[in-house]
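DATA CLASS: polypeptide
GOAL: derive structure tokens

***
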Amino acid sequence: MSGPRFPGGDPSAGLPEAGAAAPPTPGTAVPYPADGRLAATVERLRGEVRAAHAAAEGRALIELAKGVIVERLGCGPAQAARQLAELADRAGLSRLELAADIINQAARDRMAEAADEFVRTAVDEPAATAPDASVAVRLRTAESAALSAGDTQAVAESLLRHALEPLGAVAVAIWTTGPDTSLSLRGHAGFGLDEAARWHYVPPGVTTAARQALIGRRTVRYASLAAAGIPSIGRARHPDGGRVVVPAGTGGRIHGVLEICWARPLDPLPQAVERQIEALAELCAHTLEALPEASPGGSSVVGGFPVPGGHGAPALAELSDGLYDPALVLTPHLDEAGKLVDFRIRHANAHFRDPAGRPRGSVDGALLLEAYPATAGGSELFERIERVYATGEPFRARRTRLTALVDQVPLASLADISISRYGASVLLIWRVEDESARLASLLQHAQRLGRVGAFEEDVVAGDITWNGQLYELFGRMPTEPPVALRDLAAHAHPDDAGTIRRFLQKVLHQRRVGSTAFRMLRHDGVTRHIRVTAEPAPGTDGGLQAVRGAFQDISAQHWTEVALTATRDRLAATEEAAEERNRLTLQLQHAIMPPAKPPLDAPGLDVAVRYRPAESESLVGGDWYDAVVLPSGKVLLCVGDVAGHGVEAATGMVVLRNALRGLAVTGAGPGQLLSWLNSVAHHLTAHLTATAVCGIYDPGSRTLRWARAGHLPPVLVRGDEALDLPLLRGLLLGALAEAEYEEAELRLEPGDTLLMYTDGLVERRDTAVHDSVAQLLTVARQPSDSLERRLDQLLARSKSDTDDDTCVVGVQVS
């Protein structure tokens, strides 16, 4: 029952007060309040303190009710006390409950008024009849009818008629749970008989609204069952109706589920109505607890073993003694309020070993949290036991970490756990994973991962033992006989018969460890590459007693080696071809572009050239230069860089260099020469692009006319200064079919030095181009006694890191 109603609401109801968080959305689960897991002794002390406070508050409440009677009847305190006792006896209530009702009637707090208003709205009753439908009267009527009912069906009808219809509900179902978490419809009202017949039994594992409340051990609300998509009884009749599903349990155990159906979508319920529904669920729990449990077949299954019906903890104790694993029989331990706070160890079986070394007698009869406080810690074992006891759903887990306190030192171990409920008892079985079991598990996994199968063959008796992995390697069923070593050739490729014969000769006759590889022909047509290793085991008389060994599937390794061998052969051939190609390219480049050029016969002009090929022969580039005296007496000076590396770049360089030489004979200026060279690159080569700087020097007037095609401009060194020439307009060669190039004219003075270079002299991967050019100017302005020394100095102090070719052409006016 709901118990006494206190002014301002029941403080023990566990529901949020006004101003608290909003009710959860329909379809979500509302968890029970967290009670924490402390040591049992601490809990008992706190319980005693709470009981003392409750007793004091109860005495104050009774005194307050006596004061109300004195005021209403005009009698003395002693007469008021006798009147309170007589009224409580007549109503079948305790003095504390009656005192709470008297105070509620006198106070009429706002929560009670809200509940009455909700009742009037739900049933469309006139306000004049509202006092007859008070919450206390309806709950008391439902309780009386339920307690006097002979079965759960009558309980369901009483709950709907007296308590739920005034709340707007149209149907109610009472489910009971089985040992296997199945659900059986024990009572219903508002649903048709056909509907009830279809839902009389819900097997384990079927997700329904009632099962979600059972497994979650919490109230579940649905604003609309159809919107939630959860099947349940009566969904076809009320598809848009709301549902409230509440677990019905006492003492930590859930005996069943109360499911309430509304015809319309359900709005959030007031707190007073929620308390009423919780009180009805508790009433159902007490009713189901008093009824005998159905036990189909007269037996149940606990921990994987059949247990005959009609017995409780003694039957489980007898069963646990027959187990080879440690086991404990646990029964619930409740506090004075009927709340589950611990489990008592009723029996420890014969194979039980306490981690702390205590005898079985010191554990029998103790509370679980007192004997093993670490069960409420990180392992969550206590919560697992509590859940199994509440729902009946068994729990199985492998390699669970268990912790025990031995002299305040936590000791952890791995174990396989089995927890099952039978009646009002719980059977806890565990199997500790010792060192041998752990090593055996590791060996099994290693054999599976390595595709290794072990065998042992008794040569004298003829017995052969295979492990499971070896059957898989041979493609044989476990029911088929193993293959003897002497018959191994019959399962191998004919070409490997000699190899197997030599292997058997070494193991069986020479009695030495032997190993060989062969191709196994399986019955399913699959060919496997297998390596077999065996060692002889001598008997007591010195003769051959047995042979032990292993087969390993090396098919993946074999085909990997084959693929690697073929890849190495192809790679070696490719490397040889690449080396020959680079060698020919380098010879072609050196034949056309020698690292140094002989002195140029030009009056008043000193010309020097440096060419530095790339460090890697595989990066032979297309850098080129030229310095030649034309028939007119003028001097052609140029450097260029063809994009790319290899034979294509080298041949492209030859085309552009020879074309520029032939075009320069016409006497055209540098801008026109670059325009013609652009046409050559675009039309007469295969997608060739290049940069270049071209200059025509007149020794008579000491004048240089020059133009650039996407190339860095030349550097002029005059006295102690060095500067780069202006950045004239000009696209790189081959980019467009037609292009025009801007020209500039520079008059050189005696002692001036002009430097033309390719980007291999200055480029760095982590430095901007203008910073690299600034570094070049710094080096160029340093004094030098000759042009040759100046060019060598530029190459020596170059910080380029692109592994590209480098060309430098220096011109000094005398």
Remarks:
- The first strand starts at residue 29 and ends at 30.
- Confidence is low (pLDDT under 50) at residues 1-35, 108-133, 293-311.
- The first helix runs from residue 40 to 73.
- The two ends are 120 Å apart (CA to CA).
